[in-house]
Amino acid sequence: AMFELVQLHLMRTTYNAMAGRFKEAIEIGTKGLKLFNIEMPAVPTDEDYGKEIARIETNMKGKEIADLVDLPVNESPETLFPLIQPALIFAPAYLTGNVPLMSLASLKMTAIATRYCDFTGLAFSFHGLLQSAQQNFNEGYEYVLVASKMAPHAAIPFFVMGAFAGPYRIPFKECIPYLETAYSNGFATGDLTYARYAISFLPFKCYLAGFPLQDIIDTKRKFDNHILESGDLMTIGAVELFELTHSGFTSNSNIFNSEISGEYETKAETLPIVHCQYFIRQAQVLYSFGYFRDAYESVLTAEKTMTSIVGHGMQSIRVLYLGLSA
């Protein structure tokens, strides 16, 4: 009966999150964790964070981050559910802007994974993202690298490495295969969200790596049909803006005055996550034209939605652009 109850909470959390009922998903997921005597407070305190950090430090005593890859896989229900359930809470917390809860969910997953293994790749990917956002670049990179080795068929470790953690430690050119792997893994496993996220980051990373413009265009267009068929507003908008970027490169026109760009910015006004993506794309275009300070200002505009949408990932992007515009 306990196993069936656990499965029910997992399914209900997932269903409500997919249906856009994020508050309900968080509430159901929190109740599910209580089955294992794990508390997930709605408003985490410094004490809550401190407890999880202390558990991580205890688990890591005498270990390097790279040593985590040697942990034996433990898929017992007592460890599997407490690892997966916070991951299911992480997404609705991310989308509702509950950055404190998102951070606590990540810490709880990492505390479990540093003892029992992270065979899903979720815990160390999220933890690496948080570390990078806090400018602990080496730790962020190492955690995500371990995640990619523990879960070589998952999408998220490769996406986080290519988009966020990698650029601080490896050349841009070496970030591109991570994004391509995230895309192929995502479509192979049905994780279409991170597959599309990966492709939305790919063109700019190609540009920074010094790829010829036509190669960038060809690379991006290979994936456009998948994105357009997905119906995902955010990534469809990214495709539209990429076409505008191409137009700007080839004709040096003012792409932000175009009709399509205007329509996209209108969408951005009503959907905060699209608002954030719009100004990130704008920053990429401005940087590509050599307007470094303006690119950074666009990132700051995108960051206004940070607490309501993208949390630590947005901080990581801002740090990157601050370095590029320096």
Describe the structure.
The protein is 75% helix and 0% strand. It is mainly alpha-helical and 326 residues long. The chain is globular and about 60 Å long. It starts with a helix and ends with a helix. About 7% of the residues have low confidence.
Head-to-tail CA distance between termini: 59 Å
Sheet-strand content, in percent, reads: under 5%
Order of helices and strands: HHHHHHHHHHHHHHHHH
What is the averaged pLDDT score?
76
- Assembly type of the chains comes to single chain
The total of helices stands at 17
Largest sheet: none
**In terms of structural class, how would the helical and strand content be classed?**
mainly alpha
Write the SSE topology.
Elements: H1 2-18, H2 22-34, H3 46-59, H4 77-96, H5 99-116, H6 122-133, H7 137-150, H8 156-165, H9 172-189, H10 192-208, H11 213-221, H12 224-230, H13 233-251, H14 259-270, H15 272-288, H16 292-303, H17 311-325
Question: Which labels suit this protein?
Answer:
326 residues, 0% strand, globular
In short:
The protein has 326 residues and is mainly α. Helix content is 75%, strand content 0%.
